[in-house]
Amino acid sequence: MSGVTWLVPVSALVGAGMGASLSYLGARAGALANDRATDQREIAGRREEWGRRFATALSLLGEPDLRERRIGRALLAALLDSQLATDEDRRIAAEILATEALPEPTQAALRALPASPDLDDVRFVQDNNDGADALADELTGGQS
Amino acid sequence: MTTIHVTSDQVDAARTLIKIAGGEDKVDPVIVRIAHAEKPPRGGAHKPARAS
Q1: How many CA atoms, within 13 angstroms, populate the side-chain half-sphere of residue A141?
Q2: How far is CA A101 from CA A31, A119, B30, B33, in A?
Q3: Reported pTM
Q4: Which of A71, A94, A104, B5 has the most CB atoms around it within 10 Å of its CB?
Q5: Cβ–Cβ of B16/A126 closer than 8 Å?
Q6: In this structure, are residues B51 and B7 in contact, taking their beta carbons and an 8 Å threshold?
Q7: How confident is residue B35, by pLDDT bands cut at 50, 70 and 90?
Q8: Does A76 contact B at CB distance below 8 Å?
């Protein structure tokens, strides 16, 4: 066999092998790109659903019913535990809760205290005239 | 001793804020005090946000 006669089939074999490898790599890259696109769509969908729940939680905080406001806060805390929550979401929720926890009348009461009071000298007493006792009774069957 | 009355909403909001902040050391000490507000005896009339 001359040098040329064996070169043709070997070249064909190598060419076929390379072609198959390139086809496989191309298909694999396409599949990976598809997987990434699917993952991104899934994350976007989850984030969208998370956003809807976050909006629901914030909306519940404005409800007149004490029980619904509590559900809103519990939902908010649960949502902010998620990896889908951003630092911005946490900052917004913290601002809203701080405003709720320390409304203007309480700030005014604190401002009326002597300058730089020791907080240990201030008693904070929970109002029991806002339906919380009734809700506690309802939730515990009167065991509170 | 000065007394400041707060609502159960304030207490609940303060507790939730502490939870999402990651602990009592991450929030204003006043928020911590509100979260631990004393519960008055039942039947007593308590008004919120009034220093006495």
Answers
A1: 0
A2: 51, 16, 9, 11
A3: 0.72
A4: B5
A5: no
A6: no
A7: very high
A8: yes
